[in-house]
């Protein structure tokens, strides 16, 4: 590609209408005064391989990947980063001159950076983390917590087998806790994370007893619609430091933007507003 062409990036998913990534990257492109575009693209699973071959030829330097393609892109990539491989999914692709692409996963990075920015006193090494849920998002969170030096990660999930599989995959610092004992697990943790979709607008509420939440704990939710979930409201009322899920979405976008457009962007209040707006 000649240096005069305008770099293009975007997000592929099916459906794609709900993605906030175009607003997010669009805000950075505009405020940094960069030439470039970020576009949402609906790609049917049957057309994934073909789309990934065509996009570099059209001037794309990379894309974000969302449901349902996050696992399938690993098979098509020429290189998969260690963290994407451990998580078993990618969210950020970097296209190369020869038409191949690298697959990375920045969800865990986004998770940790959100905590570092919004709960700066949280010390990963100080105590165990309690995770609610054992799906794809939980996997990214677990990888990032282990990497950050959390001594123990406890996982509780409605479907016990999924929590046990996750624990098995990550060795003896990760343990599965019966869903019936989730409440006790929450009370014992330094960090509590909801990675389930419960609490999201139009979804049921989390039905776990939260009486054990107390001052000194950090509580975060990956749900960001609404920003203040019932879990976070309750945690705040019980004296915990709370961090909403929007920051994870914003921070996970940073490494891709930097690779594609050459500048490391900042996560600001204005970015939050632009992304939600
Ligand atoms: P993601 O990739 O976003 O994590 P997922 O893999 O579908 O999505 O996982 C969703 C998580 O929310 C799972 O932990 C799921 O629990 P199960 O493994 O038992 O399905 C959890 N979840 C969804 N609806 C739930 C509900 N009504 N009660 C309890 N947990 C629920």
From TrEMBL:
GO cellular component, one term: cytosol
Keywords assigned by UniProt, alphabetized: Amino-acid biosynthesis, Aromatic amino acid biosynthesis, NADP, Oxidoreductase
Catalyzed reactions: shikimate + NADP(+) = 3-dehydroshikimate + NADPH + H(+)
Residue ranges constituting the Shikimate dehydrogenase substrate binding N-terminal domain according to the UniProt record: 11-93
Its EC number(s): 1.1.1.25
Residue intervals of the Quinate/shikimate 5-dehydrogenase/glutamyl-tRNA reductase domain: 129-197
Occurrences of domain SDH C-terminal (ranges): 245-267
Enzyme class of the recorded protein, top EC level: oxidoreductase
Entry's Gene Ontology molecular function annotations: NADP binding; shikimate 3-dehydrogenase (NADP+) activity
InterPro entries for the chain: Aminoacid_DH-like_N_sf (IPR046346), NAD(P)-bd_dom_sf (IPR036291), SDH_C (IPR041121), Shikimate_DH (IPR011342), Shikimate_DH-bd_N (IPR013708), Shikimate_DH_fam (IPR022893), Shikm_DH/Glu-tRNA_Rdtase (IPR006151)
Active-site annotation: 70
Pfam families: SDH_C, Shikimate_DH, Shikimate_dh_N
Domain of life of the organism encoding this protein: Bacteria
One BP annotation, GO: amino acid biosynthetic process
Biological pathway: Metabolic intermediate biosynthesis; chorismate biosynthesis; chorismate from D-erythrose 4-phosphate and phosphoenolpyruvate: step 4/7
Function recorded in the entry: Involved in the biosynthesis of the chorismate, which leads to the biosynthesis of aromatic amino acids. Catalyzes the reversible NADPH linked reduction of 3-dehydroshikimate (DHSA) to yield shikimate (SA).
Subunit structure: Homodimer.
Family classification: Belongs to the shikimate dehydrogenase family.
Protein name, entry field: Shikimate dehydrogenase (NADP(+))
């Amino acid at each position: 590609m000649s240096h005069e062409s305008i770099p293009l990036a975007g997000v592929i998913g099916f459906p794609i209408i709900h993605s906030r990534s175009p607003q997010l990257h669009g805000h950075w492109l505009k405020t940094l005064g960069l030439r470039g575009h970020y576009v949402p693209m609906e790609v049917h699973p049957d057309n994934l391989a073909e789309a990934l071959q065509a996009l570099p030829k059209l001037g794309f330097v990379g894309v974000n990947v969302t449901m349902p393609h996050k696992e399938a892109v690993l098979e098509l990539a020429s290189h998969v980063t260690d963290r994407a491989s451990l998580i078993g999914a990618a969210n950020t692709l970097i296209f190369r001159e020869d038409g191949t692409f690298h697959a990375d996963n920045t969800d865990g990075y986004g998770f940790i950076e959100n905590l570092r920015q919004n709960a700066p006193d949280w010390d990963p090494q100080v105590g165990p983390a309690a995770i609610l849920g054992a799906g794809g998002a939980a996997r990214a969170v677990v990888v990032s917590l282990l990497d950050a030096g959390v001594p123990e990660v406890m996982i509780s999930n409605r479907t016990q087998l999924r929590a046990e599989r996750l624990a098995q995959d990550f060795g003896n610092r990760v343990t599965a806790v019966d869903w019936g004992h989730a409440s006790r697990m929450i009370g014992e943790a330094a960090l509590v994370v909801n990675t389930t979709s419960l609490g999201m607008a139009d979804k049921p509420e989390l039905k776990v007893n939260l009486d054990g939440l107390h001052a000194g704990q950090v509580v975060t939710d990956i749900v960001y619609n609404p920003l203040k979930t019932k879990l976070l409201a309750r945690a705040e009322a019980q004296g915990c430091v709370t961090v909403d899920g929007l920051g994870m979405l914003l921070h996970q976008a940073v490494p891709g933007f930097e690779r594609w457009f050459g500048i490391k962007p900042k996560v600001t209040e204005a970015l939050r507003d632009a992304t939600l707006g």
